[in-house]
Design goal:
By secondary structure, the chain is an all-alpha fold. The protein folds into two domains: 61 residues; 54 residues, no CATH class. The protein is 62% helix and 0% strand. It is elongated, with a radius of gyration of 31 Å.
């Protein structure tokens, strides 16, 4: 072989050797991860029964992120693989969290702008209760008029005359 060929072979050893060998974890590691996931599930149930106020969503997402990190690190082999894949996953989760953060901020800041718009559900509940207490007192939406029952036409399907 010529000197160029030997240099070419020496500099490209990784092509000759092939990919890195797979790492094989002992079964005890998988059982340990299983135990941790069960423990975090118990923590999730405990956290759901306790009221953290405005931090309830943050605490729930933190516990979920811990479980997801364990699954990604061990079962998706991100702990042992190239850190580039971890960077891709982390940046994807960062952008996802930003997309979730802005609607949560908008929802939590409605009361600062107009207290009536704090939450639409209680307002609908108030309208419903007012309508129950005072039937017919609320006006119809613009453009609607009350239905005249004797002018309604019902068309039955064929065979149901």
């Amino acid at each position: 072989m010529s000197e160029v060929s030997l240099h070419h072979v020496a500099s490209n050893k990784h092509l000759i050797q092939g990919p890195k060998p797979h790492h094989i974890l002992p079964v005890s590691v998988y059982w340990g991860i299983f135990g941790l996931l069960l423990l975090l599930t118990v923590i999730t149930v405990a956290v759901a029964s306790y009221d953290f106020g405005s931090l309830s969503t943050v605490v729930a997402l933190f516990v979920a992120a811990m479980k997801a990190s364990l699954v990604c690190a061990v079962f998706m082999h991100l702990w042992f693989d190239s850190k580039f894949y971890t960077l891709i996953l982390a940046s994807s989760l960062l952008f996802l969290s930003l997309f979730l953060l802005f609607p949560l901020l908008d929802d939590s800041s409605r009361a600062l702008i107009e207290p009536v718009r704090e939450n639409f559900l209680p307002r609908d509940q108030l309208v419903y209760e007012y309508e129950l207490q005072n039937p017919g007192a609320l006006p119809l939406r613009p453009g609607l008029k009350p239905a005249e029952k004797d002018k309604l036409i019902f068309i039955l399907p064929h065979g149901h005359d």
